[in-house]
Design brief:
112 residues; mainly alpha; Arc Repressor Mutant, subunit A; three-stranded antiparallel β-sheet; 3 helices; 64% helix
Length: 112
Amino acid sequence: MSGTIIASAITAAITAILTGTIAFLIQERRLRRDFALDREKLRTEFMAEQVAKELLESDRWEKRSFDAIKSRLGGFSDDELRKILVRAGAVRFRGQNAEELWGLMSRNRSDL
């Protein structure tokens, strides 16, 4: 009888170890994949901020329309693009006919 109890205990321990190991490996892969996706998203947003800042630093314009910026920085929803512009140091202005304009704060302090 004690041999049966020992065999059951060993079987339960082996099953628990295998189940735990498999669950750990699956979770580790999922976390690695999610981390890689998050890193790529952050990299994309950082590059978009750099592009937005360069567009707004152009000597030709102190302010640019949201539509002009959006046409050059595709792939983002309107609100995502607005957040990117703010992180790049831009502020929003209203032009003629309530047109949405964006310009760097550093270049447009007199209009604030």
